[in-house]
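Annotators were shown the component list below and the corresponding predicted structure, then asked to write short factual statements about the assembly.
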Amino acid sequence: MSSQDPTIKLLLIGPSNSGKTALLLRYVDDIFDTDNATATIGVDFKVKKVSVKGKPHRLLLFDTAGQERFRTLTSSYYRNAQGVILVYDVSNRESFLSMGHWFGEAETYASPGVIKCLVGSKIDRVGSRTVKREEGEALAKKYGATFYECSSKTRQNIREPFVTTVDRIVDTPQLMDPALLGRRDGTVALRPRTDEEIANSGCSC
Amino acid sequence: MATFSEHPPLPSTSWDILISGSSVKQSLLAVALGRAGRSVLQIDENTYYGGSSTAFYSFSDICTWALRVNDGHEPGFSNAIVFQEEGVDGKRGYIISLSPHLVYWHSALLRLLRSADMTDSFSWQAVGSWWVWLTDEDVAIPAVTSGITLGEVGVKAAKMVAAVTGAKKKKKGGWNKGRKKEPAAEDEATGIAAVTAAAEEKPTTLRRVGGNFREVPCTFEDVAWSADLTDRDRGHLGEFLRFVMKHDSDEPADHKYRDIFQDNRTKTLHDFISKNFPLPPSAITSLSSLTLLPAPSTKMLVGAAVPRLATHFGSLGNIPDVRSAAALTIAYGGSAELCQVFSRAAAVAGGVNVLGRGIKSVQKSKAASDVVPKTLLEAGAEEEVKRQLDVELDNGETVHVDWIIGEDATKPSAESPSGAVSIARAVYIISGPISPIFEKKYKDETIIPAATVLMVPATKEDARPVYIIVRSAVTGECPRGQCLLYVLTETSGKAGYGEIESAVQRLLDNQIEPPKILFSLQYITTSHQPSHQDSMDGVINLASVGLGMVFEDEWVEEAMTVYEKIMGTREGFMKLSDAAKRMLDEMDE
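Structure shown to annotators:
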């Protein structure tokens, strides 16, 4: 990790097929790929450079790697996250009804004070909407989250959830405290070794 | 974690590999095989990750587990006892691990994680000094006078006795007197070469905690300046350490060390050191604590102890910003965190993890042995791969796989059959810090240790030492101001609990403000000689992870062996695909 810019870690959670990966890919790479709606295999997270109040920040965006399907997300997934984006599908009522579970997960495993943003996705599916905007707003309010409805297909409101969440994080000094970011007092930096070091290490023990 | 019982069907009924369990080795293999492009289904009959290496996130989770242990549902665990101080809220803020392992700087795990680009997936913290309970009387006993080895010692040792007797006089007045006030005035040590170098720095920095827990001398400064060593002891210790570092050296010049090691493998560490590098018994006990082996120095064998000492001393001084440390530990639960991170990495590599699901039965696939009609092959039925094994899962689903990797869960009989080893263990949450073990040892260090090791040596014949690993709140495993004590001793039964309790009490009572015990969990772990038979072609049984305090190199080795069996090569074990690597590099620009 060469960049010295402050790093912000955001997570996406929510039920299967709610549009998490689509939202992520549209935001980071401006891709909307209906045929290949799975996360990139082999890569843990995506990086996006963002500017907050004129200052560059490095945004790390973590997707669920499909672990939400069998509800086997690890609690370690939530480590040191400053923001959580919870995504449901406005055309799938069941996905909305499961959001209580996902808010519960975030409160149990993420750092106290983590910034939450609720997102209703796929609003382009006008005809098949089963969750009203007001319902989403009310749920977000209940859990102290901001709320957006968006469409990865039409790009509508794609940036807002991320931008708002990042702004709120940067405005919360306790969340920008290095101790929360895994750079605790006692943390040893294990820099990846250079090739030369690896070559010299052999089988030393 | 999961409150929903209904699961969707598996995305496929056909997999290259079914991994049963999510303990350390299974998780390692799930990542390695997934990254190698194999399709991996990882299941665990528990509803949580980690199996016997898991961690608990609340006191009530622990109580649930303890009940399962006492009902005989957790193979290898027994006699769980939970204590909770009234009014203590254990709903969140705790991570109580069954596997708070230490990871040496020179370890197969760290080498592997570096090559796998995964060191960043963990918060690494330093393990500080080792501390051993030694009274003033203990340290006053000079070399070779302990009597145990007198029968064996030769002329050289006899000379030593004379020398040491002289030294003893000089030592009178207690090894530790006045050190705190004027350390510089302590011991006008001259002698081994290292002293000269160290003399320019501050002399001895050896500390004491909780009465008689004395810091084990291990850095050059310590060895050079330790006040409970005479100059002659220093020389012998230097010689012994040289032997330790060269005991497996291939250099022709070092063959004598190798030969000494080979010739003495079955001697006890105590007898071996007493005879060849006559050190005071207290120094031998201190050294033995660095092995983290459950036996006392009078019972641990050179063949087991010396390689561990070599790992310890070889690791020492390498960790950035904390040169007095030799080992690291993973925050948020040690190896329990490792299992979780690996399981996610397996999913990132394309695998699927399912919890709360086990194997009901395994059968050799009938289809596999049948000759597939040529016409079918030509019809391009490519996706219809013929698998070796049919597996029925406990929810009734059937999957077809080529390999099953599981853990040898043969239940050891309660009667402690021969070969079974029992360890009494306990976890304590205490209300205060323990000073000064979580302070920097040297001013030029910038890292504060997050864990340390204490040992209470065995005093009675047949007794075993008690090890206490203390972890501070910096690990993220308890609220600020509190500490976690992981305690263990080898035992033949519940008797170990008494030893554990008295060792912990000894530590707490000697604090200026004795911390209170807020919560404790005691349990017995039993490991057994693994049957280790792979019952069927394609079914691989891993040996269960042992009882120790260290993440063992052999676990990585066993995982690599299994990988080689499946892949035909060790090449590429845990390596990221080139495509994934490229993508990571691009993102980092």
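Statements collected:
1. The two ends of chain B are 38 Å apart (CA to CA).
2. The first helix of chain B runs from residue 24 to 35.
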